[in-house]
């Protein structure tokens, strides 16, 4: 069976779709077969995919599907999942009943946050949902919080400093050591120019690539080790 990774944060705009595009591109580069499923009614991922097709920039080894219901997802998983090494599921940036069925398939849920209270609370909610579904189904889906759109200025804010104690000590979930910085290239890839990994390497792109490699390395580590098991604070 493939490894299933979902991006979930009910408080929108934190960088779910972007993070999944970058992770997909990195796995594809490593020779894995990657499926992405767009469960967001606004179709950001699917639009990216069709834009890439129009520009003849569709990544090899990445397929994008659109399913907006739990049943659609279940059917797809049953019929297609074994053809892939990784399935990445993108979810809407709002509270939705879709998240439970997504978590039920996931090995890892990533909750991206920009350092804002709203998004931190959204990530905590996602963690609670993972705990609840794990408990109900006797599963062991992991959960981690990913800091995104980080800038030097943001790093000086009080909320930024509080993220680790809140997420790790108080809430008891995992905080990715890798942070995703605010970078223009992450905006650019939304314009249908393929994945980050397909772009000609400039200094700026090399930095983004290193960041993404570190993130995927950490994702693999979390999936392999007992780290980030969603069991809640002691
Ligand atoms: N690290 C980053 N650096 C710069 N821009 C970013 C970064 N991450 C995301 N963005 C930009 O922020 C916007 C929102 O990102 P994205 O669509 O990935 O978030 P999302 O969580 O999927 O949002 P939604 O909940 O609306 O689906 C996009 O325009 C994207 O280009
Ligand atoms: Mg999105």
TrEMBL record:
InterPro entries: DNA_Partitioning_ATPase, P-loop_NTPase, VirC1
Entry superkingdom: Bacteria
Pfam short name (any one): VirC1
Cited SUPFAM superfamilies: P-loop containing nucleoside triphosphate hydrolases (SSF52540)
Protein name: Chromosome partitioning protein
Organism: Manganibacter manganicus
């Amino acid at each position: 069976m493939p490894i299933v990774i979902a991006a979930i944060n009910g408080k929108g705009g934190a960088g779910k779709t972007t993070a999944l595009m970058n992770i997909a591109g990195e796995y594809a580069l490593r020779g894995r077969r990657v499926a992405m499923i767009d469960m967001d009614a606004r179709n950001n991922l699917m639009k990216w995919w069709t834009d890439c097709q129009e520009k003849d920039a569709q990544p090899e080894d990445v397929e994008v599907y659109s399913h907006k219901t739990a049943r659609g997802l279940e059917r797809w998983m049953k019929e297609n999942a074994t053809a892939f090494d990784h399935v990445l599921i993108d979810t809407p940036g709002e509270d939705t009943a879709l998240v439970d069925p997504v978590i039920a398939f996931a090995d890892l849920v990533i909750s991206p946050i920009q350092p804002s209270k709203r998004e931190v609370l959204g990530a905590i909610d996602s963690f609670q949902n993972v705990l609840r579904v794990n408990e109900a189904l006797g599963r062991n889906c992991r959960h981690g919080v990913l800091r995104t759109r980080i800038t030097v200025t943001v790093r000086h804010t009080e909320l930024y400093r509080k993220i680790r104690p809140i997420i790790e000590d108080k809430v008891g979930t995992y905080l990715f050591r890798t942070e995703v910085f605010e970078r223009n290239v992450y905006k650019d890839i939304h314009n249908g120019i393929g994945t980050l990994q397909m772009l000609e390497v400039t200094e700026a792109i090399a930095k983004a690539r290193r960041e993404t490699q570190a993130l995927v390395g950490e994702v693999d580590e979390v999936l392999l080790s007992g780290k980030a098991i969603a069991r809640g604070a002691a």
